[in-house]
Amino acid sequence: MPRDRFATRAAILDSAAAIIATRRFAGLGVNALADASKCDKVLIYRYFGGLDGVLKALGAERMLWPRVGMGEVGDGTSLADAVRSALLEEWAAISDDALMRSAAAAESGGVGALAPAVAEQRAESHARLIAQLRASHRVPQYTDLPALVELMSAALAMLALRGEGARATQAIDPAGPEGRRRIEKMVGAIARALLEPSGG
Question: What is the pTM of this model?
Fold first, then answer.
């Protein structure tokens, strides 16, 4: 029976994504990947050259970082509210997607071949967002908007990772409704403090 190269390749990538999402990188090995994708491990080497190649392909072909923009934010929305809305949308997407959380953890820990792909997707998403914000709002001259977006995004991504194993001993539970409400409130307060003219 002839093999379907494209179906096998897709099955390998799907299985790698599932393993990373459920067991992170500790569970990803050639044997585990061959078992999960129901293919001979020789095909992993033939199609990808090994695990690094699988991770590079995964990074090139799958969404590992949310693509956020201004979305539903209307023309009358302030710059602070637009930034708040986009960053909270990004946080929600990472919090709700196991593969994105694993990818964010890989990037923050500099793990393997996936980290550069995550960094590239994040940089592209943020560059697009910043361009949209600058095109639709007046950014205060003293504000470094790219630095603000990166700082707030990094903090929220870390909270998404902490939300997975939230414990009662944490000062705030980012996965619980009260913790989420408090975080959302503070993201808005920071954005307003830095992006709205004083007295406005």
Answer: 0.85
